[in-house]
Write a structure and sequence with these properties.
243 residues, alpha/beta, six-stranded mixed beta sheet, three-stranded antiparallel beta sheet, 9 strands, 35% helix, globular
């Protein structure tokens, strides 16, 4: 029996008894970079939050590498939407990234020299070394996003979830983040990204899941990202959406 990085069966989630996700069946293989794509309100963020036990489902099962979340949580990384973070919290870049090591350490153990080295390495990978002692509320949106990416990287997870990591950032920052994500994929990590820009799906991603409350289609981009499937997802013509 094949083991998947993420396996979801019979998942239904409702807010105030209104279904947001309905009868979700999703199997994501190891070592791919996958976009979760769909219109506003389609349940994209809810899908990954439910997988991470931040939202309670009505029904369904979720497993990571064949095991429950609690058994694998140290190997699961998460970058939330930037708008959901309290950026006024008084802390600097290095401290935020170091928080990514606490899952390995436990909250009551002091970080070691090795932990700090790993944090600095992650900060360097996202191009934020000149800002290591800068307060996070003094950073631009793109810089803040890089910091949270570094915090996820320092966990050395096997699967990463990223909720709209390109929202509100400039094109240069977006390209640099994509390179980091593709590098993770090349190291056999699985990266799941909530994404809204249809024009870059084929360029950035290997796989795509088209979602609108239910799964419309999922699989390799070159097979799944078709005019017909996009129409089913958005009830619009793909060429219109790509303008």
């Amino acid at each position: 029996m094949k083991e998947y990085a993420l396996e979801i069966h019979d998942l239904t989630v409702a807010y105030n008894e209104v279904p947001v996700l309905w009868d979700i069946e999703l199997e994501i293989p190891h070592g791919i970079l996958i976009a979760i794509v769909g219109p506003n309100g389609a349940g994209k963020s809810t899908l990954i939050k439910t997988a991470l036990q931040l939202v309670k489902p009505m029904s369904g099962s979720i497993s990571f590498f064949g095991k429950k979340y609690k058994q694998k949580r140290k190997k699961i990384g998460y970058v939330p939407q930037r708008g959901s973070v309290d950026w006024d919290f008084p802390t600097d870049v290095l401290d935020v990234v170091m928080m990514g090591r606490y899952g390995q350490l436990g909250w009551f153990k002091r970080p070691t020299k090795k932990d700090k080295e790993l944090a600095l390495e992650a900060i360097d990978r996202v191009g934020m070394m000149p800002f290591i002692h800068r307060q996070i509320n003094q950073l631009s949106g793109g810089q803040q996003q890089r910091v949270f990416l570094a915090r996820a990287l320092v966990q050395d997870a096997d699967i990463y979830f990223m909720d709209e990591p390109f929202q509100g950032i400039d094109a240069k920052t977006e390209k640099s983040i994509v390179k980091v994500l593709q590098n993770l994929r090349d190291r056999n990590k699985t990266v799941v990204v909530v994404h809204h820009d249809l024009t870059t799906v084929s360029e950035y991603f290997d796989w795509v899941t088209l979602l609108n409350t239910s799964i419309i289609a999922t699989g390799p981009v070159n097979e799944i990202f078709t005019e017909e499937n996009v129409f089913k997802t958005y009830n619009k013509n793909k060429s219109t959406l790509l303008r």
